[in-house]
């Protein structure tokens, strides 16, 4: 597995690179947005650890550019600003997860492993719910004849819901299964991704499939 670490702080780049190398990962580094995009294009990594505050194109714009290019590489965003607005901005640009500085390396490693696990090939299976279908190997999603493109995190969230149709899934369970960590009471990451999924699944006026159960979580139902 090859990981691209993007941060303008040489000490942080070195710390992450050494830690990942110790755990068996091959790493490459970049100090600014232009270098990050060049390296991501030249030698596509399996995952990118991307700081928001970098010179040239910042992390938000780098992530947007990757998504505009239909690059679905998992992106773990690093930010020194931990406000809800900052976290939402990172997720809205297409990042799959975020981590606030300063962070414990063990937590960063756990999130890296969680994101990479979701990229591993699995035995072929097609999940269906009404006109909605999801192929767990090709990662193709259709609603009727319409193909739907999802990010890694959106795909994992929809797959979880489709494996438990008509069952109310609590927020705590969804955070554990999709993001790989405990639910933070003030976090609205789940709500942001539900909004993304609804926008894509309901395109063209299609009826809503993902419903909120107040005080509990979400359910997939007609």
Give your account of this protein's structure:
This protein has 222 residues and is α/β, with parallel strands linked by helices. The chain has 2 domains: 2-117, Rossmann fold, CATH 3.40.50.2300; 126-220, Arc Repressor Mutant, subunit A (Orthogonal Bundle). It contains 8 helices and 12 strands. It has helices at residues 10-22, 33-42, 59-68, 84-92, 105-117, 152-163, 171-179, 189-201, and strands spanning 2-6, 26-30, 47-51, 75-79, 97-100, 126-129, 132-135, 141-143, 146-148, 169-170, 210-213, 217-220. Strands 2-1-3-4-5 form a 5-stranded parallel β-sheet, with helices on both faces. It has a 4-stranded antiparallel β-sheet with strand order 6-7-8-9, with helices on one face. Strand 4 (75-79), helix 4 and strand 5 (97-100) form a beta-alpha-beta unit. Helix 2 (33-42) runs parallel beside helix 3 (59-68), helix 6 crosses helix 7 (171-179) and helix 6 (152-163) packs across helix 8 (189-201).
